[in-house]
Amino acid sequence: MPASYLSKQVCRSGKRTGAGAVKIAVDMVSEGLVSETKAITMVEPGHVDQLLHPQFEDEEAYQPDVIGRGLPASPGAAVGVVVFTAEDAEAMHAAGQENILVRLETSPEDVGGMWAASGVLTARGGMTSHAAVVARGWGKTCVSGCSELQ
Question: 61: Cβ–Cβ under 8 A, 6 or more apart, which residues?
């Protein structure tokens, strides 16, 4: 480029999932680009946290059965029988049955059921809703604001 031209380059940090960060680090070690010690520092604590939550093995397999979408208020995946009250969630948990607590929105009276459920799904709320904050604190899966629920 001639000296009389002005050039501006913009760069931003690449965002990646936990699985992506680990794969990149492992690949870079395999290719001899970085040491194992350096690769470990490339994976952030948040990436490791993502990998510790339950995940579906094949997300594409269930796509045709999706009945609604909401906000990923707390990471992870949950499978279980749908229950609509905290009391039912606690009873099913006591019987050894996995369940998902589905509510319009949660309140402090629902915490027993939230603790007993494998996951929480609400029709209302956002990333700072009661369900979202409590579920994140406990490491429970939560989808909030799924307005398709009726």
Answer: none
Beta-bridged to residue 72, according to DSSP, are 143
Using alpha carbons, select from 75, 110, 104, 76 the residue that is nearest to residue 90: 110
pLDDT per position as a tens digit, 98-141: 999 999 999 999 999 999 999 999 999 999 999 999 999 998 99
- The pTM score is 0.73
Q: Which two tokens stand for residue 105?
A: 């929105």
Nearest Cα neighbor of 70 from 139, 147, 150, 135 is 147
Pairing of strands 71-74, 141-144: antiparallel
* Beta-bridge partners for 121: 102, 143
Q: Between β-strands 81-83 and 119-122, what pairing exists: parallel, antiparallel or unpaired? A: unpaired
> What tokens were used for 84?
């609509």
